[in-house]
Amino acid sequence: MKIPEPLIQKALPLLLVASAAVFLLNDRLFLPGGRPAKPAPPPIEMSGGENAGHARNSHGGHDDHDDPEKNRRMGIFHYNAGNRDLAGGKLEAAVDNYKMALSHNENFVETYVNLSTTYLKARRFGEARDTLNRLEQIAPDNPQLHYNRACLHSLEGDTQNSLSALAKAVDLGYGDQAQIETDPDLERLRTTGEYRRFIGELGSRQEKSGQR
């Protein structure tokens, strides 16, 4: 059956509005596969002077940052978009989306983790460090914070501090030993005798824990 063209023209705007509403109402968090993302030059800007409460949107206007629920949903929207960009290797786009997420929710822990991972992948170590320092102010006991800090130190050749950060991550609950043993960011750390002793002790602890 052929639908009359005038009817299609009338219905199309309603369909577009409905589709956008469904998309924005989807507030689930989607995490990329494996460990979240990576840091160098200037620090991340969370605010912007007098207009700190209003982030510019893609059309040049300003989003209303006075609505907590809207901020929550928009933060998640940009977080998920950043995850898709990160998974697709679009690092600059991922950074932009994660920063937008933080402009809506400056305490969004998962976003700091993935932003630091993105910076590490881009070898922007200064920005990774700034991001992790900010995350430490919000969630000092987050295991991923200390794991990503271990990656940062290893990439910079500081294996001693890398091992200390990794040990703290494990103490706080980071338990993905396979990731530790294969992550390319920890390659330098894995060449040290201290790491080999640490990973051996970790394996022994996990075996004993599994027997209980």
Q: SS-based structural class? A: mainly alpha
Q: Sheet with the most strands?
A: none
Rounded average pLDDT: 79
- Alpha carbon gyration radius: 21 Å
Please report the distance between the alpha carbons of the first and last residues: 67 Å
Q: Please count the beta strands (DSSP E, at least 2 residues each).
A: 0
The number of helical elements comes to: 10
Strand content bin: under 5%
**Low-confidence blocks of residues:** 19-26, 32-62
Topology order in helix (H) and strand (E) letters: HHHHHHHHHH
Task: Please give a structural write-up.
With 212 residues, the protein is mainly α. Among the domains are: 69 residues, Serine Threonine Protein Phosphatase 5, Tetratricopeptide repeat (Alpha Horseshoe), CATH 1.25.40; 72 residues, no CATH class. The chain is built from ten helices and no strands. It is elongated. The relative contact order is 0.11. About 18% of the residues have low confidence.
Kindly summarize this structure in a few lines:
This protein is mainly alpha-helical and 212 residues long. 65% of the residues lie in helices and 0% in strands. Among the domains are: 60-128, Serine Threonine Protein Phosphatase 5, Tetratricopeptide repeat (Alpha Horseshoe); 141-212, no CATH class.
Layout of helices and strands, plus pairs?
Elements: H1 5-25, H2 68-87, H3 91-104, H4 109-121, H5 125-138, H6 143-155, H7 159-171, H8 177-182, H9 187-190, H10 193-211
Helix pairs in contact: 2-3, 2-4, 3-4, 4-5, 4-6, 5-6, 6-7
